[in-house]
């Protein structure tokens, strides 16, 4: 137990973070270890703070100094556990709420190592379909753990899994400073999720909702229509994870053969076409901007 008398001292026991662990996850595990609630622990660490999750995105210098003293750790290591150094334009690819994906083999290993419930940063990244720590395909957190199924089994786009993994690699290379791309893969992910109308619906009369990506994978439109509000180019991280392999596979095709973008453009109309053209132009310009590694 910790109390106010300890407020000026470092924690007596500091838990070892798992690889790539998110700061809020590490702090929450300390709260559990000491038998106190997350908000109580947040306030004990830094008076006035109630929400550990906010620290993943906003951390002032005074907070870094305080946390590194309390948890006896290097300030730079602490900052690396957050998303605050995420390059501009990529922040929207970080899932803000609960992690949509999990690596089951790593979660089991964490539990065996006494770090049950630890959440690595990559479980929040909307461009990951495999685990960078062990290479396993990730699973949808809403799938039952005992089935042992991964996204490669449950996604309706499992047949393009290899291309999805290629798309994931492209995004990682881009974020780590590879300047060889003609288009920013991050901006292209947005462009491929632009909403448009197909001139003729299934009945041949009414226009039907579609997405730029549906030109590459026609089944995307059919599967996306029932949940169309959740599929929006302005919120790539909100794309249901089962659709993610399609987006990454479409991205890898467009990067390998940019002429595909012309075909996609020709299949969009009205506002959809204007948005697609604008986002492709942004993608072309963004590819030339030097980036910092994240
Ligand atoms: Zn793993």
Task: Describe what you observe in this structure.
The chain has helices spanning 23-33, 38-45, 61-70, 75-80, 104-112, 151-154, 161-175, 185-192, 213-216, 218-224, 244-256, 259-266, 270-286, and strands spanning 101-102, 139-140, 195-198, 208-211. It has 294 residues and is mainly alpha-helical. The chain folds into 3 domains: 13-80, no CATH class; 91-154, no CATH class; 185-286, no CATH class. Strands 1-2 form a two-stranded antiparallel sheet. The longest helix has 17 residues, at 270-286. The two termini are 36 Å apart. The chain binds zinc ion (ZN). The site of zinc ion has 7 residues, from helix 5. Zinc ion (ZN) is lined by residues 103, 105-106, 131, 133-134, 136.
Mean pLDDT: 92
Question: Low-confidence parts lasting 5 or more residues at pLDDT below 50?
Answer: none
Count of structural domains: 3
Secondary-structure content class: mainly alpha
Query: Which sequence of strands runs across the widest sheet?
Result: 1-2
What gross morphology would you assign?
A: elongated
User: What is the percentage of strand-forming residues?
Assistant: under 5%
Q: Short summary of the structure?
A:
This protein is mostly helical and 294 residues long.
Give structural attributes.
mainly alpha, 3 domains, two-stranded antiparallel ribbon, 13 helices, binds zinc ion
Task: Please give the structural blueprint.
Elements: H1 23-33, H2 38-45, H3 61-70, H4 75-80, E1 101-102, H5 104-112, E2 139-140, H6 151-154, H7 161-175, H8 185-192, E3 195-198, E4 208-211, H9 213-216, H10 218-224, H11 244-256, H12 259-266, H13 270-286
Antiparallel strand pairs: 1-2, 3-4
Helix pairs in contact: 1-2, 7-11, 8-11, 8-13
């Amino acid at each position: 137990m910790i109390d106010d008398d300890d407020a000026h001292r470092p924690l007596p026991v500091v838990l070892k973070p798992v690889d790539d662990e998110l700061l809020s996850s590490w702090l929450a595990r300390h709260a559990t270890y000491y038998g106190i609630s997350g908000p109580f622990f947040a306030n004990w660490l830094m008076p006035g703070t109630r929400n550990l999750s906010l620290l993943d995105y906003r951390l002032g210098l005074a907070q870094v100094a305080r946390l590194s003293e309390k948890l006896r750790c290097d300030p730079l290591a602490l900052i690396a556990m957050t998303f605050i150094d995420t390059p501009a334009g990529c922040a929207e690819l970080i899932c803000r709420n609960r992690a949509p994906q999990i690596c089951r083999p790593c979660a089991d290993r964490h539990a065996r190592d006494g770090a049950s419930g630890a959440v690595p940063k990559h479980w929040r990244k909307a461009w990951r379909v495999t685990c960078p720590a062990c290479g396993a395909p990730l699973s949808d957190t809403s799938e039952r753990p005992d089935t042992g199924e991964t996204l490669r089994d449950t996604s309706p786009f499992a047949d393009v899994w290899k291309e999805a993994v290629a798309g994931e690699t492209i995004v990682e290379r881009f974020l780590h400073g590879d300047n060889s791309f003609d288009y920013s893969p991050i901006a292209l992910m947005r462009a491929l999720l632009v909403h448009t109308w197909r001139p003729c619906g299934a009945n041949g009369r009414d226009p039907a909702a579609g997405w730029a990506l549906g030109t590459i994978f026609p089944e995307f439109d059919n599967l996306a229509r029932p949940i169309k509000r959740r599929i929006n180019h302005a919120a790539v991280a909100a794309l249901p994870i089962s659709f993610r392999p399609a987006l990454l596979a479409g991205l890898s095709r467009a990067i390998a053969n940019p002429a595909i973008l012309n075909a996609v453009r020709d299949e969009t109309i009205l506002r959809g076409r204007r948005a697609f053209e604008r986002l492709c132009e942004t993608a072309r310009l963004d590819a030339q901007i030097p980036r910092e590694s994240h």
